[in-house]
Amino acid sequence: TLKVASEKNIPVIVDAAAQVPPVENLWKLTQKGATAVLFSGGKDLRGPQSSGLIVGKKDFLATFIDINFFNYGIGRMLKTGREEIVGLLSAVEQYIAMDHNKRNKWVEDQIKKLIGFSERSRLYKIVRAFPNEAGQPMARAEILLKSSDLTLEDIVTELKNGTPSIFTFVDRGHLFINPMTLFEGEIDIIIERLTEIEEDLT
């Protein structure tokens, strides 16, 4: 697509809202010929949820200056606030500086903890799933049940109603735990809750 569009001088704008990681996508897609690439400022960049990042060719991006409503008039209420701009800039700088190999190893370690727990469990079988739901090169854990007496929806309900409340959901018959969204120590809390549910319901 990029090759054909380039030959015809047709701009290509890529919706890459959830396509980091890998961090290289922040520059790789434009290097391959995309005119502009759009990323969510939230999601894995972890900047302001109301922000977004556009990268691309300077002359093309210059057109956005005329439509970003920072002057008075209709649409001014839709302008991006200074707080979002600074927050997103900081998020991008931190994301690029992050040790992504170290982070990937941490994610894999959390999944190994869950799998190790399930090997001692009568109720759960937990397996590594790759890639994640957005096609990102990050693994996640899928929870399966060894018993037919309970459903994945039962587990979701118990996790939500417990203390602390843990929100998950069943997606097309699958239940995942994604360490990308967790902090240090939180996988242990999830394991504790899963253990309590097993003891209470089996």
Written overview of the protein:
The chain is of the alpha+beta class and 202 residues long. It has 7 helices and 7 strands, in the order αβαββαααββαββα. The longest helix is centred in the middle third of the chain and has 20 residues, at 100-119. The chain is elongated and about 65 Å long. The relative contact order is 0.11.
Query: How many helices?
Result: 7
Secondary-structure element string:
HEHEEHHHEEHEEH
Indicate the CATH topology of the largest domain.
Answer: Aspartate Aminotransferase, domain 1
Shape: elongated
How much helicity do the residues have?
Answer: 25-40%
Tell me the Rg in angstroms: 21 Å
Give the strand order, joined by hyphens, for the main sheet. Answer: 4-5-7-6
Architecture of the largest domain, CATH level 2? Alpha-Beta Complex
Note the beta-strand portion.
15-25%
Pick out the low-confidence regions. Answer: none
**Strand count:** 7
If you average the pLDDT, what whole number results? 91
Separation of termini? Answer: 54 Å
Tell me the name of the CATH class of the largest domain: Alpha Beta
Largest β sheet strand count, sense and barrel closure: 4 strands, antiparallel
The secondary-structure class comes to alpha+beta
Protein name: L-seryl-tRNA(Sec) selenium transferase
GO molecular function, one term: L-seryl-tRNA(Sec) selenium transferase activity
Cofactor: pyridoxal 5'-phosphate
Keywords: Pyridoxal phosphate
